[in-house]
Amino acid sequence: MKKKWALLSMMFFTISVLAGCDLLVLDPKGPQAERQASDIFLSMGIMSFIVLVVFGILIYMLVKYRASKQSEDYNPPHVEGNKYVEAIIVIIPVIIVTFLSFVSVKSNYIVESTPAGYEDREPLVIYASSSDWKWHFSYPEEDIETVNYLYIPTNRPLEFKLYSHGPITSFWIPQLGGQKYAMSDMVTTLHLAADEPGELMGRNANFSGKGFAENTFNVNVVTPMDFEEWVDEVKQTAEPLTEEKFAELLEPGHLGQLTFSSTHLEFAPPPEGENGGHHHGSSSEEEAEMEHEDETKNEHTDSSEHHH
User: Fold this and answer.
1) Domain span at residue 27?
2) 204 touches 183 (CB < 8 A)
3) DSSP result, the chain
4) 143-162 pLDDT, tens per residue?
């Protein structure tokens, strides 16, 4: 009796938890998220079909080969393996895995590039950087910076430049696309787009300390006209961001939403050039000097070989 009530309680708890879940990834608001949601539905469909087939075969086997009353001296016949069955149970899983791998690779190329239908439009570039435990969004073209919230227009490609002022974090807006890591020594790029206005949720999807749970941000998707009005309003009302204020923002802790009429990119540039990409810690001048030294060594080597 106790086991029965324990099982019922566990089922009730599971249903209650699932009822409170908002599966945002299955409610896409942009082309990248739509592609990923379709892949999820495809995978769920294939796996559901496999489960139904397996349970159907299981029920058939249990009914057909169930135990029956036999004499005590009954000796079941010896049965050899069936080569056709063995081939099926190997080939079908290989086909399923191959198909899902092909779909995954194809989708990766699609979601990593500019969203379909937006190739001919100028992207809105936003530098999204994280610190403990907040998000800083810099709009270099508009010369605006926000903290813990985004304003983005519909029907325009978005190009996020991601990096971190501290530990590795993960930038994720579930209804617009998949997550991508933000690191302290390089910049990663994430292409997104929003098809319709609304309020979305974004967060850090990578554990980065005790404040990780509240490392979230709001995403306000508006029409292009409303976005331009917001830019004009910020320029007229917000204060510029200073080095001193930015240093305060980088201190560990949680903040509300803040808006500034300038960005930190001028006095605290992202890790591009000197530390970005594959040239960790070497500037363009240092690279030029290294190339010059290599050319000098090669010339010296050639002259020595000619002398000998």
Assistant:
1) 23-64+81-112
2) no
3) -HHHHHHHHHHHHHHHHHHT---GGGS--SHHHHHHHHHHHHHHHHHHHHHHHHHHHHHHHHHHT------TT--PPP-PPPHHHHHHHHHHHHHHHHHHHHHHHHHHHHHHSSPTT-TTS--EEEEEEEETTEEEEEETTTTEEEESEEEEESSS-EEEEEEESSS-EEEE-TTT---EEE-SSS-EEEEE---S-EEEEEEE-S--STTGGG-EEEEEEE-HHHHHHHHHHHHHHPPPPPHHHHHHHTSSS----EEESS-STTTS--S-SSSSTT-TT--HHHHHHHHHHHHHHHHHHHHHHHH-
4) 999 999 999 999 999 999 99
Do 222 and 171 lie in a common domain? yes
Q: Which of 160, 96, 90 is nearest to 130 (CA)?
A: 160
Counting as low any pLDDT under 50, the low residues of the chain are 15-21, 273-288, 290, 297, 300-301, 303-308
Whether residues 148 and 225 share a domain: the answer is yes
Backbone dihedral angles phi then psi of residue 199, each to the nearest 5 degrees: -110, 125
Q: Name the residue among 50, 132, 65, 155 with its Cα closest to residue 95.
A: 50
Q: What is the pLDDT of residue 65?
A: 80
Pair (92, 177) in one structural domain: no
Structural domain includes residue 177: yes
Please report whether residue 17 resides in a domain: no
Per-residue pLDDT tens over the stretch 62-84: 988 887 777 878 887 787 788 88
